[in-house]
Amino acid sequence: MNIISTIGYLAAFATTVSFLPQALKTIQTKDTSGISLAMYALFTAGTFLWMMYGFLIGSLQVAVANVVTFVFASIILVYKIKYK
Amino acid sequence: MNIISTIGYLAAFATTVSFLPQALKTIQTKDTSGISLAMYALFTAGTFLWMMYGFLIGSLQVAVANVVTFVFASIILVYKIKYK
Predict the structure, then answer these.
(1) What is the value of ipTM here, to two decimals?
(2) Which 3 state secondary structure label does DSSP give A19?
(3) Quick one: which H or E segment has residue A52?
(4) pLDDT in tens, B46-66
(5) Where residue B63 sits, what CATH number does that domain have?
(6) Which of A75, A77, A1 is nearest to A41 (CA)?
(7) In angstroms, what separates the C-alpha of B56 from chain A's closest C-alpha?
(8) Minimum Cα–Cα distance from B70: chain A residue
């Protein structure tokens, strides 16, 4: 694994894992007043497109990262709609 | 521009633009109680790494999207630290 690939995996790890504490916080507190509905609607759709793009260009970093981020973002979006 | 490239640009547009309504909402309301500090600390670092990765693999979609997302995420992170 070369340096470029390692940077890709670190990037994928950081941005993917970052949505876990947000999802957990949102599930536990149901405090979504400061969270933007427009952001999560657009972001969830965007991660779905990134997922497709990653698979199509053959970048496992882009694809796998966005599968996981899509799941976390969807949870936050559902809570935002339910507890706005 | 082929279909794969178009999906990449749409993905980049959606996830990048998504942080704008969140940044604006956070700036206007200063309501950061529901926002996770761990998320934005990790996410901001992650977008910086994606930016490097995008330039290194020659994907303008990955690179440019993450330059803009890095700026928006940094603003939200600063507000979260200042108004927690």
Answers:
(1) 0.86
(2) helix
(3) helix A37-57
(4) 999 999 999 999 988 789 889
(5) 1.20.1280.290
(6) A77
(7) 7
(8) A15
